[in-house]
Each structure stands twice: as structure tokens, then as C-alpha cells.
Write a structure and sequence with these properties.
By secondary structure, the protein is an alpha/beta fold. It is built from 17 helices and 15 strands. The strands form 3 sheets. An 8-stranded mixed beta sheet has the order 10-11-9-12-8-13-14-15, with helices on both faces. Strands 4-3-5-6-7 form a 5-stranded parallel beta sheet, with helices on both faces. The chain has a two-stranded antiparallel sheet with strand order 1-2. Helix 6 packs across helix 16, helix 10 (242-252) packs parallel to helix 11 (269-277) and helix 11 (269-277) packs antiparallel against helix 17 (387-404).
Length: 405
Amino acid sequence: MGKGNQLVKIKILLLGIPEKCSQIKTQIKDDEITIVGYVVDENQVLNEINRTMPDLILITDTSPMALRSCQQIYLLRPRSVPIVLSDLEDSDLMYKILQSGVHYILPENIEPINLIAELKGIYSNESNRILALENTGAKSSKSKVIMVFGPKAGVGKTTLAVNMSIKLAQKNNKVVILDYDFQSGDVGILLGMNPRNTILELIQEQSNPNVDTIRQFLSLHLSGVNFLPNPHSPEYGASITARQVESIIAALRVYYDYVIVDAVSGFDDTSACCIDCASAVLFVTGKDVPALHNAKKSLQVLAELTDKQKIKLIVGKCYGYGISDNDVSRVLGMPVWGSIPYDEKSAVAAANQGQPLVLSYPKSKICKEISNIAERLEGMNEGYRSVKSRKKKRISFLQKGKETG
């Protein structure tokens, strides 16, 4: 926090009820933190930000006017981070706060020593984001792009992507999930969300997006996972190019620990681009003979596009069929990295409730295996091929597809 012998202080602006702001000001006594002022009138908050240039804005008011100010801060002053003190037991209020663009909510009666520690932690995280914005070629050393991919629909690909994202977020990771199945993606349904903004609105308004501009179009789930939906209507998917898909991933990985891509089933320009960007490809297959036959052909194509060590074989919706994981491994020529049991009752109930499985049925067999997969991802090292060689292989594949098509 220091530069030489000079201490760099975290500048905090207080917004909200005067009595509460005064109380907090007396509680925050730390050499690394300074209170630069407080705002009572929400209409003056942007002017006060311009004057004081705070790193963090601590908000003690959750009225509609205050939440509207949060949204203005999020959209117009992205380098000042809003933090709300609120009743964490009020789920409706929590949802409204999250929808205003706030990513940090702390309990309203938090102890001063814990508040100071939280403020320092948030400042550290957000300083890294700002640094990344100023050096767009950089990315977090921890950052991983995880593509969840399958040769056909209906094997549990989206269930894995959504619930794995939540498990990773529960481990204090910053996680964003992208629904890149532009024709029939179901990420929003499994999250129980139907946001207004989608990837279509993003690319229409932002020709050269960065982390902050993209975050304006993300929706935040109560689990802490950020979400970029597919277009509301399938016909708009054709207008989204592979270059746009890649630029979004590249921008997000400078800030998020995990960028989870729920990709379209099968191969096209978008999936080839995502394969190229991925740190790991979770290849999800069924366990019946037709599914394995299809998976074998798809894995041969996939091996031409990326390093085989990046491909992690997942058996989804395991019914049995008398086929063991060892049989699957032998047929497909690679080890089974994860095997997700089929639990139709829990899966259907969760989908109907609009609640992810790991939140509604956390003790189910499905959730236990998804937790194990998330644990393995946490311990996984990236193994990148050089950008030049990966790009060359992808371009040759796309040209081959056009020649043979």
C-alpha cells in the first residue's frame, strides 16, 4: 500500500443517512484509509465523486433514490466502487441492490474491525482490475477460460456450466458465465433470470468493449455469478461474429478468475473461437452407444483444434446402460475426468423452480460431483500453446469446413 516511505491511502466517500455516515466516520480509524467526505443528496453524488475522486463509495441508504445513484456510479464512474451496507436477510432488497450494479454488499451491523478489513480487501481486488484496464494486454495469473462443450444437446452441458460457476463463486472467485449458444441457450432459465440486456445489445452499443463497458451489460445472480445472456430471439445469433465473441472473452479475463463459456453444441466459427481461447475444454458426452459414437468423431475434430491435454472428458447424465466409465475411456481413448450421475427428480424440480441445483439441492449426487469438478479446476494449471500456432490451426479448420461444406 505504500510507495517508498509515503503511505497511499484508500479514499472513501460516504453516501446516505447523515447519522449513519457520522457513526461510520468515527469507527473507521486506520492509517491506510481516509474519509474524503459524505453525500446526503443522491443528486450530488456524481459531482462529489468528480471532486474527491474516491476509490470506494460506502452507501448506508438502500432507498430507491440511493439505488438509482448506485446505478449511475456503476455506469458513469466505474473507477469508484460502490459498497452497500444492508440487511443480508432481506432477499428482495438484496436482489434490487445487485440489479443496481453493486457487486459488494456487507452486513449493516458489521463490526468496525471487520469493516476495515473488508474495505482493504475490496480495494485490493479493484485496484487489480483498474491496473488491468490500463494494461489491456495483461490478464490475471489465476484467470481461466473454461469452455463447456458437447457434440449434441441434452447431455447436461448447461447444468454443469451453471452449477459449476456457482461452486467456483462460492470459493471466493470472481466468475462470469457467457451463454454462447445463440440459438437455444438455457443458462438464464437455469439461473431463474430473464435480463433485458444480452450480448446483442452489448455488441450493438460497444464496438471495442473493455471490462467496465461489458459489465454494464452483465446481470448479477444472487450467488455472485455474473451472466451475459444469449439474444432473446434466435435469429439475431447470426449477426454475432467470432471476432466479437473473442474480444468479449479477452476483455473479461483481465478481471474475472473464471470465464465460463456455455458453448453451442457442435462446431461452428463461434465454438472454434472459444476452443482457441479456452484454458480447458470440458467435453460432455452421454453414455449410450450412439452418443459415444458421435463423441468419438467430435473428439477427433477437437484434437485437431487444440492440445489434447486441454480436453477434459465429462460423462453427463449417467444412466448406466451397462457401460462403465472404463468402457467410455477405452472407446474414446482418454480418461474420464468427471462422471455426473443422473437425478431426474432433482434436476427437473430445480429447473421448474428457476433455482440452480447447487442452491436448491446441494446434497444431491449431481451437486457432489459438480463440486468435485470445481475443485479439480481450482487445482488445474494452464497449458497454452503459442498464440500463433493456435490461430493458424483454427483458421485452417474454418477454411477446411467451408471447402468441404
